Amino acid sequence: MKKLRELSVDETFEAFVLLKTADVRVARNGKKFIAFTFQDNSGTIDGKYWGASDEDIATFTTGNVVLLNGKRELYQNMPQVKIMHLRLAKEGEPTDPSLYMEKAPIDIDEMKQEFNDYLLDITQAKWHRIVRHILSKYQKEFFEYPAAKRNHHAFAGGLAFHTLTMLRLAKSVSQEYTELNPSLLYAGVMLHDLGKVHELSGPVATEYTLAGNLLGHIVMVDEEITKACIELNISELDEEVLVLKHVVLAHHGLLEYGSPVRPKIMEAEILHHLDNLDASMQMMLGSLKQVNPGEYTERIFGLDNRNFYLPNI
Amino acid sequence: MKKLRELSVDETFEAFVLLKTADVRVARNGKKFIAFTFQDNSGTIDGKYWGASDEDIATFTTGNVVLLNGKRELYQNMPQVKIMHLRLAKEGEPTDPSLYMEKAPIDIDEMKQEFNDYLLDITQAKWHRIVRHILSKYQKEFFEYPAAKRNHHAFAGGLAFHTLTMLRLAKSVSQEYTELNPSLLYAGVMLHDLGKVHELSGPVATEYTLAGNLLGHIVMVDEEITKACIELNISELDEEVLVLKHVVLAHHGLLEYGSPVRPKIMEAEILHHLDNLDASMQMMLGSLKQVNPGEYTERIFGLDNRNFYLPNI
Amino acid sequence: MKKLRELSVDETFEAFVLLKTADVRVARNGKKFIAFTFQDNSGTIDGKYWGASDEDIATFTTGNVVLLNGKRELYQNMPQVKIMHLRLAKEGEPTDPSLYMEKAPIDIDEMKQEFNDYLLDITQAKWHRIVRHILSKYQKEFFEYPAAKRNHHAFAGGLAFHTLTMLRLAKSVSQEYTELNPSLLYAGVMLHDLGKVHELSGPVATEYTLAGNLLGHIVMVDEEITKACIELNISELDEEVLVLKHVVLAHHGLLEYGSPVRPKIMEAEILHHLDNLDASMQMMLGSLKQVNPGEYTERIFGLDNRNFYLPNI
Amino acid sequence: MKKLRELSVDETFEAFVLLKTADVRVARNGKKFIAFTFQDNSGTIDGKYWGASDEDIATFTTGNVVLLNGKRELYQNMPQVKIMHLRLAKEGEPTDPSLYMEKAPIDIDEMKQEFNDYLLDITQAKWHRIVRHILSKYQKEFFEYPAAKRNHHAFAGGLAFHTLTMLRLAKSVSQEYTELNPSLLYAGVMLHDLGKVHELSGPVATEYTLAGNLLGHIVMVDEEITKACIELNISELDEEVLVLKHVVLAHHGLLEYGSPVRPKIMEAEILHHLDNLDASMQMMLGSLKQVNPGEYTERIFGLDNRNFYLPNI
Amino acid sequence: MKKLRELSVDETFEAFVLLKTADVRVARNGKKFIAFTFQDNSGTIDGKYWGASDEDIATFTTGNVVLLNGKRELYQNMPQVKIMHLRLAKEGEPTDPSLYMEKAPIDIDEMKQEFNDYLLDITQAKWHRIVRHILSKYQKEFFEYPAAKRNHHAFAGGLAFHTLTMLRLAKSVSQEYTELNPSLLYAGVMLHDLGKVHELSGPVATEYTLAGNLLGHIVMVDEEITKACIELNISELDEEVLVLKHVVLAHHGLLEYGSPVRPKIMEAEILHHLDNLDASMQMMLGSLKQVNPGEYTERIFGLDNRNFYLPNI
Amino acid sequence: MKKLRELSVDETFEAFVLLKTADVRVARNGKKFIAFTFQDNSGTIDGKYWGASDEDIATFTTGNVVLLNGKRELYQNMPQVKIMHLRLAKEGEPTDPSLYMEKAPIDIDEMKQEFNDYLLDITQAKWHRIVRHILSKYQKEFFEYPAAKRNHHAFAGGLAFHTLTMLRLAKSVSQEYTELNPSLLYAGVMLHDLGKVHELSGPVATEYTLAGNLLGHIVMVDEEITKACIELNISELDEEVLVLKHVVLAHHGLLEYGSPVRPKIMEAEILHHLDNLDASMQMMLGSLKQVNPGEYTERIFGLDNRNFYLPNI
Fold first, then answer.
1. Is position A303 within any domain?
2. CB A101, CB A150: distance < 8 Å
């Protein structure tokens, strides 16, 4: 079976796909139809299911895996599927939604191992205990969640993958500038986005939670450090705690980007730079892999709406 | 004895005053002098003490009350004192520094009483318990601290006075717009600036603390609510808690002003407006009371550097 | 008969409604249709009238009341009416357009009475005469006009209602800050938006006038004060006149918002704060009353495109 | 006698000069001195008069002409005069202050003649009458006032000279773009800065008036048009009047620069461009004439703090 | 034959027109259609060609001239053509695309003559040689290219016409301000936008080139001056060369608009003003000629999204 | 001999120092003095030389090495030297100015070696040839110049050191993101600031050159690539050349920071991030090494005027 991204225009195909979204609407003729987004791990494509019965509507809902017979077409320059037949996947067929979702390029177990190594490199005792405590409390979510609803690292495992990439960059940078404290940098990197396990609803059909909207992930990880201190009997007034909280609170760099304080410590400033660098890189890669050499990407919202060019070299 | 603000140019005087600052410097001739700022509860004035001995330097330090004989002069259009004689105040003389500092225009006990009344008007049980718990923990500091290092409400008791004024405004506004929840508004007002008891060093020679610089008062009051929930056995996930935290976190209104989230709840938006209004009012009053009708104030930093005119009417 | 906002999806109904807009267009098949917006005092709903004859087009024009038989549907997630039958309302039926338009929550006569009381509280003679003179000249329009084409107070009587709310807030604030001059504040509030009787075309199908586009309401009320001075034989150079004009000219607070000067007098600054507060409050209420507890509003353009949450408490 | 700008360092000289400012201060030794700014029509220079007696202070006041014996020196890289002798100019000597002030490069009578020619070119009757009416009312001030307190055209006659230069540019531009209405452009140019006769205190020791601070010159010329309409019995509602007012109100181009409306008519946009061009040109010339080829000017506040280079060509 | 802009609604017509764009799409019924934009020298109009065969698609491509029989209609308030018949223009019929494109209002030969006159007025030898060298290298493109892909001067010959208009304005301004160096101003004007012959793809179906996107026209004309110096054996270090390059590099005035340096020389500042003035004028004229007196234009993107009013005078 | 930074207050000392600046001024008493800034490789200190004779002024000029006997004092909280004796260094004493200037922390020969290694890693032929050609042309200046007049890397060899640090970071980042083209990244890094050899006057008493002010270093390196192409017979139109120029032109990231284009290629975006990171790091280190743990630095202009805290950990 071909993947969705591999189909050419006017090609007919059969494929197991995940129903990523399934919105019921009314057509001009008064009849209902379902506007689907189908997904496999190569990408997504839209398609309309005309004249949907009430039973169809009850059957084909978000999160189900279906067997789709269709034809890839272009509608107003956008690819879409003309649906020819559709049924739910049966037992014995590949019905696990996670098979159809984009994943981090590294295996979870490998990532866990590498995290452990970095954790051991946090040699300052209080930071080590706090980070270990919080990570173990949210281990499951941390390795499953995306890093965002859309834009960069918006895939299952994206949160851990983004954090891991930053740990590796932090290591290179610490080696280049020996004045930096690697323990503080690693501890800050590990925690900086962890509040997203509260801010986002999970790896599938990711939405912002109420807490995410009202508090934001930056404040929520600060609260986690506060609670960890109580649970570990570490004084919140210790300078080590203030400094770790600061590095995490300041990581968006500018107040306009949601940090309540700007970096006032060298490691906070650097963590912000690395976060920016990895996010930019990931957004560029996400768009550039959809074009051929000599072409421009679409405009990327998170990069000030710039489009990028893939050189022909 | 005349107050400092009552003196005319070239008038000689004798007065007990507080040494607000006392900086030792070297003159062009190589001798040391002390640059004083003298303070009584009518205002402040600068004066230089030429040819200071090491003993003088050890004696006349910040926070002491002295008996000053001097003459008020103008130097480059700014008032200053020509110091004729200076000695420490003795026992039996008015040596309590707080006698010379600006104070809130209402007595502390009256303020406490009025606070209690508003606390009783918080009828939602969780908010009532959380606010009562935190206020009683920091009651002493709350009624002593200024609301800022400079600018608005920068006087002893200023924090409580600012909060009380906002409670009264909140009451009027709740009566005008009945859709507002007065319990939420009062709870938010009471807590909104309470983090300043951690952010500022205290009522005398007020400075920002390390925690103030690294975390800021907005995050610190959020942490206090987190701790109160633990101590009171209230779930942090309750919508009442999220909403209360949000109202407090969002009170600066804009991310650029240090709130990590913008108001997304009606009462958060209104609290921000009332905070702005009282701060503007207090800054204008502070400057306007130093000029006569028909004159302009100096430019006020916190009001976009505007100067204000006192009409001749 | 049910109101438009009370209908459920797929419900058929009959109702008298106002034709708020009636745009004639050509369908893909070359035939004409009319795109209606129907309105009653609970809200509005769109509906298309297919295959309209020239007679239909001449009959069903903006501002007429019709009897509508239809079915409420959803089209691309937006409510619309499937029109089953339509005829003009006849004599004896409720044909007065004002029955179908949103209104200020207070009766006009009550508002007039309350305005008179505030007018008596303007004790400074020149301000009193000027305000009374202008208000009586435009009394009819002042109590009929909306305060805006859309956004806040965009309903018949909205201008007077917005002004009245601000007078009440001004009264509370004057009582809290006794340094404010209530006469000046009331006079400024009463006149601040009065130029809108020139800027807007009226309560129905409100548009900006040419004068509104080329001069704006702020300048036009300044001109009204100039003319009032001539007619009342008050010197334009009197400080009372300059100060009143300033309070009115500066009420948008920032040059970017169209005030030619920024507030330089205490009452001008406060009037700006109260104007902001009431506009924000009205925009939030307008959106929040369309959602249920636990839901978010749509994004509100006039509030920096934020959406708001209605707590579940 | 040499002019002030012609003196070299360490040169002694005798010259009649105007006392532009004369501020009394107290020196470190407790004695009074006067800080003078001397002016002739080539420029200004500062000098301190040490040990001033009360009689000196009463004699040497702003606006008097004096005979100064002094020596030009450098103090902290700024030129200053060491005063050797000073006395008031006597009868028979050149005591008229206007002899010492910078002037427009064209004679007033020539300017008046050229204005009349342009006035005749305003062929639209209402604009012609309004402009003639206002200009004749303020003719004296219009030809005496500067166009600003500092920055561009800050010299006696500067207002008329700036207006005249813009009329000439307007003529060239109208000839290049025949779609422009020269009558409207000339009428707008003639009135655009006329409000400065109210905004500024006059040609000597120019300050902002209270009306200037509270209303600004843009609003005040709009009021003048309103009054002219009443006096000339022209309806304020005529489109010709609205359009003329608009061109004047919009001439600062951006709300941030104090126009209450942005240009919405071609001639308003062009008037704004020409105003900008002449102001920039005048500021550059003012600074460049103080440097030699191959040198940079000081930074010019009104041009975003840029400095300019005079090429060596 | 009528021009496209002269047709009234529902009028049938026959006309030779250029296929400006021809996009193939799939309709809801699965059949292909072509979305055309037709153009003649009065303007453009869209039209859909339903049920296009593969032969139609191969025949009716961008850049061809066709004979169109159609009916002008309104679809959603926008004019469109209902296509009744379509065929390619034959030999002997007016098949030259340039007949259907908008042109500069002056004949190319006249423009060339006027350019030569201005070139002779560049009396500084190095500037004269450099400008002559570059202009003769790109003479053909310079007189054919538009000045932009859209917005101002987006027509064949627009680049030369824009440059010529600026030369005329530069002459007037140099006469008004005799301190300006007309040679430098003319040389700067002639070169300022010449890099557009590299930045844009040409007069038909204008797009940005890769070099245009990656380097921009400002840098490319600087490179041309560098190369001209090498070819003419003029030292790049000569102040005349630096100054000429600066005037060209700085002509966008602000860094935000793409100039790598802000104007630091009088002529650079003035060139920027004139460029702005002509661009604004051209954008306003382009929009205003599409409306009648008493109407507003559409919003103009390049003028901060303002709309303009054409007075009824 | 002690270094300047090692002296305590009131300590007398003798030291060879470089005269970094020597400005002649006139004191209030009319006598001349010289305001010196003395420098050794630990830092700088100011001192005034009162009553300077014309011979002193001719002797003690910028760039000379002197033997200074003095006493370190505090004047208005800033350290200064009271000069007790001063003479020029004689032959046989350490008179080489470079001994007293701050230097890059790596030896020049080591840097050259490392550069060569990176040059070999540019495997794309055209980029390799262009970079080698330009570097060899400016080799001497490249390894001597600072990277800025002040702020980051403002020391001899700073330009090469900054470039080398970025090469190392570029290597780490290329290894982490294998989609990046290391040849392009290295070529871009090597050239990105090379224009500073034209923009700055040299390692001693560094000033901006006229070319630096009028063109800027970004444009000048683009010109160097243009010339290199001519000299190496590489077509300027090759995509490899366009792409290399783009990476260099875009390295300031934002138009507001002086890049004429924003990054549109992945390697351009990353080069900008690395440049930012190293500049921030260098500015922080420069300030932090002047404070003790537990202290704040002064505000750093290039980092938005933030001050930084050195943790006590």
1. no
2. no
End-to-end CA distance of chain E: 33
DSSP-derived pairing of the beta strands A43-49 and A32-40: antiparallel
CATH of the domain at E139: 1.10.3210
- Judging contact as 3 or more Cβ pairs under 8 Å, the answer for E and C is yes
Pick the last residue of a domain from E100, E129, E147: E100
| Statement to judge: residues F84 and F118 lie in one domain | no
**Does one domain contain both E96 and E116?**
no
Complete DSSP assignment for B165-217: HHHHHHHHHHHH-TTS-HHHHHHHHHHHTTTHHHHB--SSS--B-HHHHHT-H
pLDDT-above-90 percentage for chain C: 69
Interface test with E, best of C21, C23, C25, C26 (most E CBs within 10 A): C26
Task: Specify if D299 maps to a domain.
Answer: no
| Nearest 10 degrees: Cα torsion E84, E88, E90, E95 | 110
Range of the domain at F87: 4-100
How many folded domains does chain E comprise? Answer: 2
CB pair distance less than 8 Å for E304 and D280: no
pLDDT one-digit tens code per residue, D162-204: 999 999 999 999 999 999 999 999 999 999 999 999 999 988 7
pLDDT band at residue A205 using 50, 70 and 90 as cut-offs: confident
Percent of chain D with pLDDT over 70: 97
Q: How far is F173 from chain E (nearest CA, A)?
A: 23
D237-276 pLDDT per residue, tens: 999 999 999 999 999 999 999 999 999 999 999 999 999 9
Residues A121 and A81 in one domain: no
A141, pLDDT greater than 90:
yes
Nearest-Cα residue of chain C relative to residue D259: C260
On whether both B153 and B46 belong to a single domain, the answer is: no
Burial label, A37 (beta-carbon count in 10 A; 0-12, 13-18, 19+): middle
CB–CB of D309 and F210 under 8 A?
A: yes
Q: Domain with E29 in it: what CATH number?
A: 2.40.50.140
pTM recorded for the entire structure: 0.89
Q: Are residues B47 and B162 in the same domain?
A: no
Query: Are residues C129 and C46 located together in one domain of the fold?
Result: no
Residues of chain C positioned with their CB less than 8 A from the CB of D263: none
**DSSP state at residue A297:** P
Among C160-169, E73-82, F8-17, F76-85, which stretch is predicted with the lowest mean pLDDT? E73-82
Average pLDDT over residues C20-40: 81
Burial bucket for residue A9 (CB in 10 Å: 0-12, 13-18, 19+): exposed
- HSE-up (13 A, CA, CB side) for residue C200: 25
For position A283, what pLDDT does the model report?
Answer: 94
CB C282 within 8 A of CB C153: yes
* List of chain B residues whose C-beta atoms are within 8 Å of the C-beta of residue D213: 296, 309
Q: Say whether E74 and C214 touch across the interface (CB within 8 A).
A: no
- Domain contains E142: yes
Residues A118, A179: one domain? Answer: yes
A-E CB pairs within 8 A amount to 14
**Which of A39-43, B16-20, D102-106, F177-181 is modeled with the greatest confidence?**
F177-181
Give the chain F residue nearest E229 (alpha carbons): F227
Interfacial residues of B (vs D; Cβ cutoff 8 Å):
73-77, 82, 296, 309
Tell me whether residues F277 and A280 touch, CB distance under 8 A: no
Asked if residue C115 and residue C65 are part of one domain, the reply reads no
Average pLDDT estimate for D98-120: 91
Q: Which of A74, A296, A309 sits opposite E26 (nearest CB)?
A: A74
